[in-house]
Specification:
Layout (H helix, E strand, L loop, with lengths): L1 H13 L1 H23 L1 H8 L10 H12 L6 H46 L3 H6 L2 H42 L1 H17 L1 H30 L1 H7 L2 H51 L4 H47 L17 E10 L7 E11 L3 E5 L6 H9 L6 E6 L2 E2 L4 H7 E4 L10 H5 L8 H10 L3 H5 L18 H14 L4 E5 L7 H14 L4 E6 L10 E6 L2 E6 L1 H6 L4 H11 L1
Helix pairs in contact: 1-2, 2-5, 2-7, 3-12, 5-7, 7-8, 7-9, 7-12, 8-11, 8-12, 9-11, 9-12, 11-12, 16-18, 18-19
The structure holds adenosine-5'-triphosphate.
Length: 594
């Protein structure tokens, strides 16, 4: 419950005035409903439905007094108009309150999701790496929805509680002993049914974990659709999906059964207690008819409310695990916020070069294994450097460190003698990055290109396309720049996609271009095109190429060979090839044999 109160406090802090207005409206609505019930007595008296009525009844006297003040007679039409007035006022306020309620709930929903996206976006890359995408998606889509639902149930419970409380007070004023009897019954039943709240909590926990599994399974299924179809393992994936779905159904049924059971117990309980009340009212408390009617109406309304309160509590209980999941992610992101200098469009004009000084790095989930150990090198500005090594050698880790996504555990990276750690934002504005699995949106080539550079002109776009050797291809398309590339660029070949991503990186006019295995999945024809594009750029900027294939880096000014996280060789292509027993020569032979 503490976690719920924590979010309620944030909810209150977001719009305290609206929150308080909402509560005041709830109280007024509760009072108007109570007055509506009380009106039954004078109505019955004036209509003469209850014979031999004691007209000195407290309520009737107050009403007479009120009517005298406004100069009206206590007549049936006046009473009916007043009754309609109460109901009208209550309904109108209820409408206003519902609108206000939804408004503040929606504002809170926006606040929570915006805060989460900010926290995730500014978290250290290593935290994002440690979470499956589907985990974060699940928190955004499912768990956040459950959190809003939990807050909504909480507000509904406040509203029901206030209305119930006001009616209990009215009933108490009319017939204290009988009200105590009705209440005792209600409280006993309420406490008895609390055991169900615990059960619903465990159902809620299972719902949270099943939602996560379902999304994980679905994401894996969709991402790996090509492989799944190629290996013909659709049935296994589908059966896994169906299994989770069935578990969800089982859970949902369990929750429903608890709620239906609660409802049933309340109905039976209320029948027993209302009968008991009727009997006691007549046989023990000898209540007069008008008071009896008020108590009967309040009791009849009170019991369903108690049942709604109980069900509301159960609903909140089911949602509590979602609050915990959300808080956990928020706290993790908060604890690993990236320290960046103020947002700025400034870039670094690389003049001397980039230096790795004694850089070591390990991933948090494998602290004993260094992915990179004591890396020292200097990349002169304006040159092209290739980093090669076998799979798992540490090339991508090195690129992530170079971009400033990962922080060295030991040592430091310098950009023209300035530590990268204090200039990360400026540095990222300076570089162009083409990753292994280049990403394109399901929109036009133009929109994809302008993603990082929204103000780029037509001329700049074509210049970048030309540099990336993809201008002829784009101009040959029927819709040219307006051609839609499909989800993740599926309507393009691997080579076309990669060259468009290269053009996107070049459009930002970077001083440093980092290509991480940009040709790894391409055939030799496309590889040549990319290579040609890179050769076009050599000398104009500082280029860092991570490559598997030695053929693609023949023209690099420097080559750094990494093995098991350490630099084992450095030099030019020719000097490294001369050392026949060297790692580079071996890698080169392996590539040629492949
Ligand atoms: N997110 C991670 N968590 C834990 N260990 C990781 C993570 N990413 C990489 N590693 C480990 O770090 C080492 C270096 O990995 P890296 O991806 O940098 O190699 P690579 O040379 O780029 O490999 P490849 O050419 O196959 O992409 C490997 O031992 C790898 O298992």
């Amino acid at each position: 419950m503490n976690i719920l109160l924590l979010y309620i406090r944030e909810f209150y802090n977001l719009a305290p005035l609206k929150f308080v207005t909402n509560i005041i409206l709830m109280v007024i609505i509760g009072m108007l409903e109570g007055l509506g019930i009380l009106m039954i007595i004078p109505l019955l008296i004036v209509a003469g439905i209850i014979p031999g009525i004691n007209t000195n009844n407290g309520l009737t006297v107050i009403l007479n007094h009120c009517f005298q003040i406004i100069g009206l007679q206590v007549s049936l039409p006046n009473l009916l108009i007043l009754y309609i007035g109460f109901i009208f006022g209550q309904s109108w306020l209820q409408r206003r309150q519902s609108i206000l309620n939804l408004d503040i709930l929606q504002s809170f929903a926006i606040f929570l999701s915006t805060r989460l996206i900010r926290l995730v976006a500014s978290a250290e890359w290593q935290l994002i790496l440690s979470k499956p995408n589907s985990y974060i998606t699940n928190v955004f889509i499912t768990e956040l929805e459950r959190v809003y639902a939990g807050i909504k149930f909480f507000l509904q419970m406040i509203s029901i509680s206030l209305i119930t409380l006001i009616q209990i007070v009215i009933a108490f004023l009319v017939a204290p002993s009988l009200t105590c009897l009705v209440l005792t019954g209600g409280v006993i039943l309420f406490i008895f049914l609390q055991t169900f709240a615990k059960q619903t909590r465990s159902v809620g926990q299972e719902i949270s974990s099943l939602n996560r599994d379902l999304l994980f399974n679905l994401t894996e299924h969709l991402n790996g659709m090509k492989e799944i179809k190629s290996y013909g393992v659709e049935a296994a994936q589908i059966s896994n999906f169906v299994k989770i779905r069935k578990e969800m159904k089982k859970n949902s049924n369990r929750f429903n059964q608890i709620q239906v059971k609660t409802n049933m117990i309340y109905k039976i309980g209320s029948a027993i207690f209302i009968s008991l009340c009727l009997f006691s009212a007549i046989e023990i408390f000898t209540l007069n008819p008008q008071d009896f009617i008020v108590i009967a109406v309040i009791s009849a309304r009170l019991w369903p409310r108690l049942s709604s309160l109980q069900i509301g509590l159960q609903n909140i209980s089911t949602m509590l695990p979602a609050f915990q999941v959300l808080r956990e992610l928020e706290n993790q992101c908060l604890a690993s916020q990236e320290v960046l200098e103020a947002d700025t469009p400034t870039i670094i004009k690389l003049e001397q070069g980039i230096e790795f000084r004694g850089v070591s790095f390990y991933y948090e989930n494998s602290r004993t294994n260094y992915a990179l150990k004591k890396i020292d090198f200097f990349l002169t500005a304006g040159t092209t450097t290739a980093i090669v090594g076998s799979s798992g050698a540490g090339k991508s880790t090195l690129v992530d460190l170079l971009i400033g996504l990962l922080q060295p555990k030991e040592g430091e990276i310098y950009i023209d003698d300035q530590p990268l750690s204090i200039n990360k934002r400026k540095w990222r504005n300076t570089i162009g990055y083409v990753p292994q699995d280049a990403f394109l949106f399901n929109s036009s080539i133009r929109e994809n290109l302008q993603w990082f550079c929204p103000d780029s002109s037509e001329e700049m776009i074509w210049e970048a396309l030309k540099l990336a050797s993809v201008d002829t291809f784009v101009s040959g398309l029927p819709d040219g720049l307006d051609t839609v590339v499909g989800d993740r660029g599926v309507r393009l070949s691997g080579g076309e996609r990669q060259r468009i991503v290269l053009a996107r990186a070049l459009l930002t006019r970077p001083s440093v271009l980092i290509l991480d295995e940009a040709t790894s999945s391409l055939d030799s024809e496309n590889e040549k095109r990319i290579q040609h594009a890179i050769e076009n750029l050599q000398g104009r900027l500082t280029i860092v190429i991570i490559a598997h294939r030695i053929s693609t880096i023949r023209n690099a000014d420097n080559i750094i060979v990494i093995e098991s996280g350490q630099i084992v060789e450095k030099g030019t292509y020719n000097s490294l090839m001369k050392n026949k027993n060297g790692r580079f020569s071996t890698l080169s032979c392996l590539c040629n044999n492949n």
